[in-house]
Amino acid sequence: MIHQDEHFMSAPTIPFHGSPAPTIGVEMELQLVDQEGGGLVNVCDAILGEIPAGWGSCFKPELFQSNLEVNTGICATVAEAEQDLVEKLLLLHHLCGHHGVGLVSAGTHPFSLSADQQVTDNPRYRRLIDVLQRPARRMNIFGLHVHIGVGSGEIALGVVNRLVRYLPHLLALSASSPFWEGEDTGLASMRVKVFESLSTAGLPFYFGSWREFESIIDQLRRSHTIDTIRDVWWDIRPHPDFGTVEMRVCDPPSSLTEVLALVALVQCLVARAARQHIEGEPEVKPHAAIARENKWRAARYGLECEIIRADTLENVPARELIAEEVAALAPMAETLGCTPYLAHVEEILRAGSSSASQRRIFEENGDLHAVVATLAQRFAASLTHGEKRGARQ
Which of 31, 170, 250, 324 has minimal CB crowding within 10 Å? Predict the structure, then answer.
């Protein structure tokens, strides 16, 4: 009989290029919308063709031509990530203006149809459409991904295991996709429910060792479930090539200020979890059924939900639980130099998430075009604010 550990030993090695510090990388998927009509426009390649030489790797097409991804370099602090993003986003905003295009940061577009989106001419995306069929054609969604550097694969998995309990917190804060193809879905985040239709998306699994993780990834490859590890789209995952833990659960908030607040929260959570893993602190891992229910509640109600507390199994209002966590992370934020950014999480708790704001705009105007126009204005204003703040620093 082959014992489980012996089977894991036979798996090929996946090198993890670890980081000695909790460095930051941010990936923002942005909507390209017509400045007059508000609908999504398939102009990603045209805009990328105007990016100056040397900047190309920072801007990438996504599955559809109405989605453009902006990436930071490796940043030591949230302030450095802000400087990086402001510079790139201002350039993108300027180039989009030449095409009559605005930028929107939200998990779904309120009314544009998935069927109207043009697939990017790329072998990987063509394969996804061919293999996944209609579910892939529905992927007219947009995400915010935050990478935080960790020292090893074992630490990365320890962090992932520990942070499953915080996925609903981050989703509730970031929820920005209440509308889908012209209808109010009744959800705070329709995006995550669309994504969950794929077999390799959704909540991660608990792994006891890096060897076990390697074995599962190898099995997924050999069974032709995935081509590469990039096809594993869990809400949080190790990223061996970058040496990071990648947080993928978040909808994109509607302003850069809110994006940076989430980046600070993720950096603090990852850095604390890495330290706890190294020091051997006991893990508090919610059962998969509890983790699934909590994510559903965050997707359905956003910040108005109650989260089942992982340690006591009590129902606690999301705002209360998140405020408690932000307070507990204050020493870590001071160490990492991100206190002002983390403090803005409290403003999101007071004002509410983008999903709630979008509904208020629609109730006031009865027009989803007004929702898009307000989102575009808010994002553009946040770039200008970031530019002025950077100039003062």
Answer: 324
55-77 as b/e: b if 16+ CB within 10 A: eeebbbbbbbbbbbbbbbebbeb
Distance CA 205, CA 288 (A): 9
Other beta carbons within 10 Å of 21: 13
Closest among 294, 68, 17 to 170, alpha carbons compared: 294
Average pLDDT over residues 279-297: 95
Residues in the chain: 393
In angstroms, the CA 146 to CA 309 distance is 24
Torsion of CA 338, 236, 136, 26, to 10 degrees: 20
Q: Which of 72, 304, 66, 276 is nearest to 171 (CA)?
A: 304
The model's pTM: 0.94
pLDDT above 50: residue 5: no
> What is the amino acid identity at position 1?
M
In this prediction, residue 100 carries a pLDDT of 96
3-state SS, residue 376: helix
Domain count, the chain: 1
Cα separation, 266 vs 301, in Å, equals: 21
182-228 per-position pLDDT tens digit: 999 999 999 999 999 988 999 999 999 999 999 999 999 999 988 88
Q: How far apart are CA 81 and CA 70, in angstroms?
A: 12
pLDDT at 389 over 60: no
CATH number at residue 342: 3.30.590.20
- pLDDT (tens digit per residue) in 246-262: 999 999 999 999 999 99
For residue range 78-103, list pLDDT tens digits in order.
999 999 999 999 999 999 999 999 99
Cβ neighbours of 210 (radius 10 Å): 22
Q: Are 173 and 252 in contact (CB under 8 A)?
A: no
* Separation in Å, CA 371 to CA 115, 257, 288: 21, 19, 36
| Listed residue (224, 220, 256, 249) closest to 234, CA to CA | 249
Report how far residue 147's alpha carbon sits from residue 385's, in angstroms, rounded to the nearest whole number: 24
Q: Give Cβ neighbours of residue 114 (< 8 Å, ≥ 6 apart).
A: 137, 138, 139, 140, 181
The reported pLDDT for the residue numbered 1 is: 33
Q: Give the domain extent around 204.
A: 4-392
